[in-house]
Amino acid sequence: MSRPLDQPDPSEKSGLPSEPELFGGTSQGEPRNWIPWIAGFAVVLVGLVLLAVLGRGGRQQAAEADPYASMLAVEQMRLSQAENFAGATITYIDLTVQNNGQRTVVGGVARAVFRDTLGQVVQTETLPLRALLRHPLGGADEAGDLSKAPLEPGKQRVLRLTVEHVTSQWNQAQPEIEFLSLRFPKQ
Predict the structure, then answer these.
(1) pLDDT tens for residues 72-111?
(2) Per the domain annotation, does 29 fall within a domain?
(3) Residue 126 domain boundaries
């Protein structure tokens, strides 16, 4: 029986492994060890489950209205917009808030609800409360951590909410603001 010249004789061994071991291949006859692959998959799966559980818990906590929120009165709301370096429009909501309660507020979040011309909710944002602070070198005021300039009882403070993107369906009216998860100094 004759064979073509361009095909090697199957009885001859080339002496080369089927895959180079440099790239993770195994030489013929050695079984592949699946234990590291299974362990890695299990670690990734556990991480995803923890992320899903912890992420859902944070949203549920922030969704509850704070009982102290009734003590905070929004005296004035001012909206402004500016473009960032990437060309996107940022919306700033500056709130002049009066603390009519007996506790000092050092942090929290606010829910801003944007509506369309029919009064339907088109966007809801949960945003951190940040105090509008004087820049140490002069110039424009900037938003900073509320704990650096707490809202004390009987006082007013300007708080800034920053919205990265507002839908084009927004009716341009002032959004509804609700204070959530307020934080107070530890006593």
Answers:
(1) 999 999 999 888 888 888 899 999 999 999 999 999 999 9
(2) no
(3) 67-183
| pLDDT more than 90, % of the chain | 44
pLDDT in tens, 50-62: 877 776 554 444 4
Please tell me whether residue 116 adopts helix, strand or coil conformation: coil
DSSP labels for 19-34? S-GGGT---TTPPP--
- Return the closest-CA partner of residue 110 out of 151, 50, 154: 151
Tell me if 21 is assigned to some domain: no
CB 18 within 8 A of CB 25: yes
Say if CB 65 and CB 53 are below 8 A apart: no
> Could you count the other beta carbons within 10 Å of the beta carbon of residue 48?
10
Dist CA 174 CA 164 (whole Å): 16
Q: How far apart are the first and last CA of the chain?
A: 96
pTM of the complete model: 0.63
Find, among 103, 102, 105, 164, the residue nearest to 129 by Cα: 105
Q: What is the CATH number of the domain that holds 113?
A: 2.60.40
Three-state secondary-structure class, residue 178: strand
- Report the length, in residues, of the chain: 187
